[in-house]
Amino acid sequence: MTRRDALLALGLLGLGTGMMGACGGTGLLIFSQQRKRTPVPASPTAEPTKTMTPQPGPQIVAREAWGALAPDHSARNEGGFYSATNPGGWRVYDQPLPEVYNTLVVHHSAFLEENDRATLHEIQDLHRGRNGWADVAYHYLIGRDGTIYEGRDVGVRGAHVEGANTGTVGVCLLGNYAVDPPPMRQIEGAITLMVWLADWLQLTHIATHRDFNGDITECPGDNLAAYMPRFAAATNLTIGTEGYVPPS
Ligand SMILES: [Zn+2]
């Protein structure tokens, strides 16, 4: 089976089972919608506002610059906009983001195309097309040379970790770190982003995807997971899922 066939198969596995985790997981519901809490009314036309991103920050390649497609709000697994009656819809956070986020979740892409841009397009095609989500699952992606790319708007709930998307910010390093060692420049770029996010979003914890979903994924691979102590030290965050609390 080729990699593309494997990805397609994973996408097909998502059919009829609701959601699957990013990075090759095959779980059921990725959103933490099973938790009861006061529904927050959302405008059906709400779009995230870029003004929520503080300045100054690290240099980030905007979606438009890498040629991302717009979110697909007719997506079969993340269709429409979040509401009490559509808890799996596109959720634009209406609270200040430091009140929303507490945990940074580290991922790898598990595959590479010929360059970063091609890999980014393949990820969006996989998530937005075959997995049936509205957009790229992750909020930020790190290229092989440490370049930081914008993924899903950080003002919107991600689709990157099953059962804990609401309140986790997703960062994906491009590469397969179950097999390869991550390039040092990429690690340095990731740390630059993580330090900024930890400070801005007032995070408390950092975790790997498999810390949350170890039953369905090895993401981000042993070779990247080995850097978690370094990430934690640089950001002054605690490793693990214990800090995860969905926003009220
Ligand atoms: Zn992952």
Protein model, in words:
The chain is α/β, with parallel strands linked by helices. The chain has one domain: Lysozyme-like. It is built from eight helices and seven strands, in the order αβααβαβββαβαααβ. The chain has helices at 3-14, 63-66, 97-100, 116-130, 184-200, 209-213, 222-225, 228-235, and strands at residues 60-61, 103-108, 140-142, 148-150, 168-173, 205-208, 238-239. It has a seven-stranded mixed beta sheet. Residues 1-20 and 25-45 have low confidence and may be disordered. Bound molecules: zinc ion. Zinc ion is lined by residues 22-23, 107, 209, 217, 219.
Low-confidence stretches: 1-20, 25-45
The overall average pLDDT, rounded, is 85
Strand content: 5-15%
Q: From the helix content, strand content and strand pairing, which structural class follows?
A: alpha/beta
- Rg, Cα atoms, Å: 16 Å
- What's the CATH class, please? Alpha Beta
Largest sheet: 7 strands, mixed
Strand elements, count: 7
Number of helices: 8
What are the secondary-structure elements, in order, as H or E? Answer: HEHHEHEEEHEHHHE
- In CATH, the topology is named Lysozyme-like
Distance between the termini: 44 Å
Number of domains: 1
Give the neighbour order of strands across the main sheet. Answer: 1-4-3-5-2-6-7
CATH homolog superfamily: Peptidoglycan recognition protein-like
Looking at the overall shape, the CATH architecture is 3-Layer(aba) Sandwich
Give the cofactors and ligands.
zinc ion
How would the global form be characterised? globular
Percent helix range? 25-40%
